[in-house]
Every structure is written in structure tokens, then in C-alpha cells.
Predict the 3D structure of the following.
Amino acid sequence: MNAANEAALDAYLNYLAVEKGLAANSLDAYGRDLVDYVSELRQKGICTPDEVNRSVVLDYLKRLKGEGLSARSQARKLSALRGFHRFLVREHQSDQDPTALIESPRAMQPLPRLLNTEQVERLLQAPQGDKPAVIRDRAMLEILYATGMRVSELVGLQLSDLKQDIGCVHALGKGGKQRLIPLGEMALENLQDYLQNGRSKLLQERICADLFLNHRGSRISRQGFWKNLKQYALKVGISQNIYPHMLRHSFATHLLENGADLRSVQTLLGHADISTTQIYTHVQQERLQRIHQQYHPRG
């Protein structure tokens, strides 16, 4: 390696160790990424950090991409380069930061996992019986799928959030944003059953404004509901690792599959940006491709 670049790298790693207090494993990772980068500079005949420009960094990233490195790993390496060049500018060892205007490679957003309509139906039928906790779970599952609420919104519901006269529920989402969501006939019916035959028995003459209660008469936790959800899934033969957000994903996807428009689904989910909702259109596309491959004679 060129002496000037090597000295700059040693100074930066020493800064990370002494002033930033990075752990040994983190230092090793930074060291590997930056040694590779400085070696690239040497091969290009670049002798000092001041000679590095934006094109040099972009060529380096292009090489990483060509080697099959994932977008996530490329972004991590670029982050190491940013830290290195910013340090050199701050220490007056360089006049410019060539990484300043380079955007991080974006990892492809994984498609959400969801249940099909038959699995959802089996899950909703899983809580059987007239015990107060079973009546509660039946209502919670129906409402979660009927509204697409986040589990935190569901367990956070209070009695005052119910608008039974118009068949809606008032949800408080991220950032304190409020929205009114239709419940639907089945969810409303199970909610009324819970209010009449389940909640008062769980409350045990205590005073509590929360809607869904545990056996102690206080608000059921997200973890408590998740545990119950897993048990019901296993009961009806759903072996995949299930979590509450899967019902939110299923809600959105099933609406779109049945003709709902994207803007309406965005409003129901409480997404601030429609680009967040658009992930469900990709789910639809992937499903159509699978169907085509499976059933088309030349698929």
C-alpha cells in the first residue's frame, strides 16, 4: 500500500479504537473493508487521499457489485468509506470528501409474509368455547384481521375508542396519528360478545379503561397476545412461524386482491406515504407469477 494512504488508514483505525471505543470485532470489520479500499487506490496509482474523487469511489462500488456483493454489504462498505474520508477532512489530511454526494445502495425490501384466506379462516375459527379469555381472543383476532391494525394499536384500544353506533373503531397509530377504521359485521359481532360475556368476568369488579384485558383485569400485553396467537395457529395446523403483523399484511393483500384501490388501503393502514403501501402490489405480482408458472402450459 502507498505510505500516505496506509498512514491515513492507521490514524483512522486508531481514532476508532481510542476515541470512539469500538469493540475489537467492529475494528476488524472496518479494517478489512478499508484495507481492501486502500489496496484498490494503490492499484489505480492513487498516492494520497486528496487524489480520490467521486468517480474513484463509484468505480470501487461498481467493482463490489460486479463481484456479487449484496446491496446491504455494499452499503456497509460505503459507510466505512464515509467515516474514513470525513475523518481525513476533519483532521485536515484531505480537502474533500468524495463520498459526500454518493447515495447508499438500497437493499431490496423483502416481501411481507402473510396467510392465505383459507389459513386466515382456520385461524379465526381456532378460539372455541365460552371462557372469557377465549371470547376475548376470538374478538381480538377478528378485529385484527378486519381492520389491519398493528398489534400495539389493538392492545392499546380503550372503551372510548369504540364507535359501535357506526361500526367503527378509533385507532391511534404511529406518531400519534388517528384514524377511524370500519370493523365489519363479524368483528363487530364478536366484539359485542366479548363486551357482554367476556370482559366483565376478566375485569373482576376492577376499574380499567382498556378494552382487552388479561386474567388479572389489566391490559393484555403484545407478548401475551402473540403467545396466544401462536398456540391457536398450531392448533389449526399452521406450522409456519406466525406473528401478529402477518394478519396486517394479509388484510392489505386480500383487500387489493379483491379490488380495493391502493389509496383506500393506505388510509386504512395509516401509512403516511403510499410507497409503503405499494409493497403489497409486489406481493400480488409475485403471486400471479407463481400461478402463471404453475398452470400455464409454457410457464
Q: What stands out?
A: Strands lie at 162-163, 168-172, 178-182. Residues 281 and 287 are 10 Å apart (CA to CA). The chain has a mean pLDDT of 89. The two ends are 53 Å apart (CA to CA).
